[in-house]
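Workshop exercise sheet. Pairs work together: one partner reads the sequence aloud, the other fills in the structure field after running the prediction. Swap roles for the next sheet.
Pair: D.N. / O.F.
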Amino acid sequence: MKMKLLILSLLSMVSISSWAQELIHNESTITVQAGAVLYVEGTMLNTATGVIANSGTIELKGDFTNGNPAGWNSPNPNTLKFSGDLASNVTSNGAQFYDVVVQKGTTFNVNLLDAMNVTHNLDFNAPAAGTGNKVNLGSNNLIMGSAATVTGFDADEYVLTGGTGYMKKTLASGSFQFPLGFDAATYNPATMNVTAGPSDTYQARVLASPTNGNGLTGTPLTTQVVNAVWDINEAAAGGNTYDLTLGWTVGDELPGFSETANAISRNDGVNGWDALFSGLGGSGTTRTRTGLNAFGAFAVGGKAVANTLLVDAKVLLQGPYVSALMVDSLRVHNYIPLTEPYTAAPYNYLHKAYGGGEAVTSAAIFDQPLNADDIVDWVVVELRSAPTTIVATKSGLLQRDGNIVDVDGVSKLSVQGVADGSYYIGVRHRNHLGVRSNALVSLSNAPSALVDFTLLATAFDDPAVTKPTDPMKLLTGGLYGLHSGDAGFNGLVSYNGASNDKNIVLTTVGPATPNNVVSGYNRADVNMNGVTLYNGALNDKNVILVNVGPATPNDVLTAHNNN
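Structure field:
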């Protein structure tokens, strides 16, 4: 029904239901008085110079298009209600709606074709449970005024934000829940509780899959996280403090996600994810982080969204060292394990934070022939907040030239779960004495300054340790490396006495067969040539004897790393 002029004075009527499928209004004014209902069976188009003055309720089943920027001249209160078994596309053209009600049939949505402003209430008023109505933003914003509320939302009815549009809310203080989901089956609400700061307008949306990099774009994370990323920002930067609660369903939890050890992590788009191991906790399908004062992308998870520090360190091992490089006999014979050996027996090393369990995808990772980068063995890197306080560890791979790299065989070593700051760097190896830096090293998500343990001055020199005089072994070419022979992985190298390392070599080959040769990945193989020998040429017990001193076989070498 096309109309050039329609003036409705509806003082006592409760509804009008005799309209045709389409109501087109192109001039003058439609007036719906308080208490009255204008019912439109299909689409409503207000165009040209048409004006709608709604003080009651307009209920329609189809699309709503306000083609005249000044065409919605409705004093408060008023209601725009979407019902029926059709989707409704809405073009507001700057109109401000007091109350908006979504009460459609099963799975039918209200789709925004431009920004929608709601000043009082958005009501998901489903006629029955499981109706599944959504307000679908697409690329447009849903703007809630300072007094506006949202009611009736649940895991089935919410604001759909899978595109570039945001749900916005002006808030001076207190709490507001953004009922969000990134698709028709996923409900991921976000609740902000503003505790300090000036009034501001906050915007939120939720998308599928947190990513590496800036959190919103890049490669999706596929393990240890909730499969959702919340993008939350403020209009005026700075000055606000808030608490944030995020929610999800069990079906959103990707493999490796811990329901009892997770955290909310923020990504500012520059420095990566910032969650700390010390902040893990919670249970169920909500998580709260308090005291936030910055915004960005947010995710819930464990190691995958933990704060990452990059360590650039270099160390040589005496055992396999030959003229500026280490030999990679263990790699050549395919003896290096695919998973770091330190957590398990016989080493039983107690990793900290997210350390432990590091593994390579295949033995091919150990083959890095360019620039003498073939892998020699696994090592442990320690971050220490104080000389004897280890706060985080990571097992890394040692290249022939001494560089310590991550499990891809080439990248700088990343350590997760502790905050940016200054730390002492320690290095442990399974049959060499450990070492730590003598100075604090500044760490962040950018590679650190090189911690070069081939230089004696880099290592901490414990004055209580009198033999050896130096904390590291002088190698040929003027370089320094870790002392070989600590087969017991106890910070000592001993040839005689209780629990001496020579006996570990003998036990490995067999006390009754001291001339035996044992091949493989063994802690008693202190020269790391792939075989353990007690007797004969290049035997391992002689490496231990040489280090403690052939003339002083009862002496003990002690690590200087204060652990």
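Discussion prompt: The chain has two domains: 67-305, 308-563. What would you look at next?
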